[in-house]
Design goal:
The chain is 52% helix and 9% strand. It has 35 helices and 18 strands.
């Protein structure tokens, strides 16, 4: 029996069908849905369900406030800092604003005295300016305007905190931590003395913030609440096991429900020894790459369900350790790295229809985001050049690398295929795919920088390509938003025709985000550049995801680790069980120094690791089949080495002996079948036919045999054949800077023109003549490379000096 089934039975047995004044608070909305399903099975008689809420919903509802959206919150904080420092630009502000808001959230959730904390931080930063570590007689570094602004930020933290709180309260709004603090400060009047809250159950919690602790403790003292914990004796009683850190703290504080056996004040009976006494099979599988984890998970689930179709798609997994085909059971595929969601969905057998995706599909992981990011990069890296006729007019041009990156984007490529975009006919009347032709033209003409009008000429009448290569006003982000609106309209029509539901959903989500930003920016009087707008937009995209909808009681659940709270499964597959991912690396992005956070009771990476350990072990408690998949490649997650999670080591050296034979641990090896193995490589050779001999004679008698060609023949005769005989050249690329050969050719051509056009005709050679010829020959020889930027500018001036001398 699962934990939520036991909870439903327990609450119904106490209150019966009279549940309309009972409140059940759970960690997540997913847990709320599962609990309600179990509660509905307790009787055949209709009854009013209790108020069942996720904890965040309960807090905001009881506090009487509404959560503010991230965009508005950021601008509210910006207005606060503008009142403190009217010279603060939005571009400076947006770089650290989100970090500060996260700190405000933690300060409120843990009920830290803001005046005491921020005064402490200011004093600590002031000590840094004293240069106490310098040896006697050493000269301190002079404080700059940058460091002055840096330290002024810390001096204004408390003022900004109070001002932001007052602004939000005046509008009936709050951020998450602020809502928690408001309820904790007023728990007596809002909940304890409120007759609407007859009985409150807090179900399945582990690591509580100080605000949550105060709320629950106040209701426990008033005998209006009960806490139903889910834990196991193994990690609760072991003082060194990090998974039970918080629960041991609450037991020391005398909180009810944390004894192993039920007592007079503990009526919720649950088996607290399932982790070690129930039979479990644990497999630890190592694979080379992150994406291969998804393939293994798909194959495992297919084997468990008795599906055979997937083996035809992935024969290289046929020889993997055999998994017994058991009756269908509740299965969870848990993604410690949530970016693997799409690979996992594509790796499932096509016949799998009964599944529920609890986590959202991140907008940052979408192809649409990479296209938007490429457009911002192209606009921000464009360069401006003077007109060729000498006028003081700056002509902006796009760099060819960003242009090619946009043209090669899958969205744009698919659009071109659907629209069947073709190049203009050549001299033979033949046409080619438009995007490939444009890239060939850029290389052929050696266009390091490409003008907007050139790209529009290449695009012809196509509206999408013209939209992609419009010029944005870098000082006005609203111009960028309007271009992005046009882009969405063009792509939407195509994907609507193709019935691509996910891409249409991405477009709609991004359109909604832009609308929200546009409305907010129109109300602002401050200048927001495209650069700061991009930073702002990226932060919002990071927080945005597509929510999936389904029945929820499916046999297969795909979710992140945090979504597993209070849920139980018979079979569990955990992906990315690598150190640094499960648990996450010791990173805490905060303006508050670690030692001060530790002293003031704010959570650090230690608490984060304990929370993840609890979720991991609780997930194993009632599961019978467990597969932990990790990567073995050093660079799979950008880590120094492909290290399995410490939890795997703990299972092997601590949990396994404690189970006394109830847990079986194995390390199967993923073997690759023969179907996709490459055949033995045979030696590549070309018979020397009469036509080949004829081509060789023409080459030798025409151009002759140079040392380069002879060395090429000696080192690799096939390379000599392809390059010299059949003339298959390597792909040409755009040269961005002048090489030594180009530099020499340029000067030689200039000298030749001086001899032929001036000296041999008896005309005078002046400095103006030399300069004019240098410009003309540079255009002829170098082809497309700009002479007024970077390395080329240095070489051009060097060439001018040499010629004048």
């Amino acid at each position: 029996m699962t934990f939520l089934e036991q909870t439903a039975q327990h609450i119904f047995s106490i209150h019966g069908p009279s549940l309309d004044d009972v409140w059940v608070i759970l960690p997540t909305r997913r847990a709320v849905s599962v609990f309600q399903q179990h509660l509905a099975t307790q009787t055949d008689v209709p009854f009013l369900a209790p108020h069942t809420l996720a904890v965040d919903d309960f807090i905001t509802q009881a506090a009487g406030v509404q959560l503010i959206d991230p965009v508005s919150l950021l601008f509210e904080l910006y207005h606060v800092f503008r009142e403190i420092d009217d010279k603060l630009s939005f571009e400076q502000f947006v770089g650290w604003a989100q970090v500060l808001l996260n700190d405000f959230d933690r300060v409120d959730q843990y009920l830290v005295d803001p005046h005491d904390l921020f005064t402490y931080v200011t004093a600590a930063k002031s000590i840094e300016r004293w240069n106490l570590d310098l040896p006697p007689g050493a000269k301190a570094i002079t404080e700059t305007s940058f460091t002055t602004k840096y330290f002024r930020l810390f001096e204004n933290l408390y003022t900004a905190y109070i001002a932001l709180r007052d602004r939000l309260l005046a509008q009936g709004l709050a951020y998450r931590g602020m809502a928690y603090r408001l309820l904790a400060d007023n728990i007596e009047t809002l909940v304890r003395d409120n007759p609407a809250y007859e009985r409150v159950y807090f179900v399945g919690f582990n690591a509580l913030s100080k605000a949550e602790e105060h709320i629950i403790n106040t209701l426990l003292d008033a005998q209006k609440a009960d806490v139903l914990w889910d834990f196991d004796r193994y990690y609760l009683n072991d003082p060194h096991q990090e998974a039970g850190l918080f629960l041991r703290r609450y037991r020391e504080l005398g909180w009810p429900g944390l004894r192993i056996e039920p007592g007079p004040k503990q009526t919720f009976a649950a088996d607290r020894t399932q982790l070690t006494r129930s039979e479990k099979t644990i497999r630890v599988v190592g694979v080379p790459t992150a994406s291969l984890q998804a393939k293994v998970a798909g194959q495992l689930y297919a084997d468990w369900q008795g599906l055979d179709g997937i083996s035809e798609q992935m024969p290289y997994l046929q020889d993997m350790v055999s998994v017994p085909k058991l009756p269908p059971k509740r299965t969870a595929i848990v993604l410690a790295d949530e970016s693997l969601l799409v690979p996992v969905l594509y790796s499932l057998d096509p016949s799998v229809r009964d599944l529920n995706v609890t986590m959202g599909l991140s907008l940052r992981q979408s192809l649409l985001f990479t296209l938007i990011d490429a457009l911002f990069e192209m606009q921000q890296t464009r360069a401006e050049f003077r007109a060729k006729d000498g006028r003081d007019v700056k002509i902006p041009k796009f760099h060819h690398r960003q242009v090619v990156k946009v043209l090669n984007h899958p969205f744009v490529q698919q659009y071109a295929r659907i629209k069947n975009l073709q190049s203009p006919p050549d001299e033979r009347g033949e046409v080619r795919p438009l995007l490939g032709w444009i890239q060939e033209e850029i290389v052929t003409r050696q266009k390091v920088y490409v003008e907007k009008k050139e790209m529009h000429a290449f695009a012809g009448n196509d509206p999408l390509l013209k939209t992609l290569f419009k010029r944005w006003n870098m000082a006005k982000p609203l111009s960028a938003i309007r271009v992005l609106y046009d882009l969405i309209d063009h792509l939407r029509d195509v994907y609507k025709t193709q019935q691509d539901a996910i891409e249409i959903e991405y477009l709609y989500l991004f359109y909604s985000l832009l609308k929200q930003l546009e409305t907010t920016l129109e109300r602002q009087t401050e200048t927001v550049t495209v650069g700061s707008f991009r930073t702002f937009l990226n932060e919002l995209i990071r927080q945005t995801s597509i929510p999936f909808t389904s029945e929820g009681n499916s046999q297969l659940q795909v979710m992140g680790m945090l979504e597993t709270r209070a849920l139980d499964f018979d079979r569990v597959i955990v992906l990315s069980a690598n150190e640094g991912i499960l648990p996450q690396g010791r990173k805490l992005n905060s303006l508050i120094p670690f030692d001060i956070a530790l002293e003031k009771g704010l959570p650090t990476y230690r608490e984060q690791e304990s929370v993840m350990a609890y979720h991991f072990y609780r997930l194993l408690q009632r599961a019978s089949e467990i597969v932990l998949i990790h990567t073995t490649s050093p660079d799979a997650y950008g880590m120094a080495k492909g290290e399995p999670s410490r939890f795997i080591r703990q299972i092997e050296h601590e949990l396994l002996p404690a189970s006394k034979g109830n847990i079986t641990l194995s390390r199967p090896v993923v073997r690759f079948g023969d179907a996709l193995r490459p055949a033995g490589l045979s030696e590549l050779s070309v018979p020397k036919t009469d036509s080949i001999r004829r081509a060789m004679r023409e080459m030798l008698t025409g151009k002759g045999l140079y040392p380069t060609a002879l060395n090429q023949f000696v080192s690799c005769s096939m390379r000599f054949y392809f390059g010299r005989i059949v003339k298959i050249s390597e792909q040409e690329d755009v040269e961005e800077s002048m090489g030594a050969a180009d530099f020499g050719n340029w000067l030689h051509h200039t000298l030749e023109a001086l001899d032929q056009d001036y000296r041999m005709k008896g005309l005078p050679v002046t400095a103006a003549v030399v300069e004019q010829l240098l410009k003309e020959k540079y255009t002829e020889v170098i082809r497309g490379q700009q002479a007024d930027t970077g390395h080329n500018m240095l070489l051009y001036h060097m060439g001018q000096t040499l010629m004048q001398q």
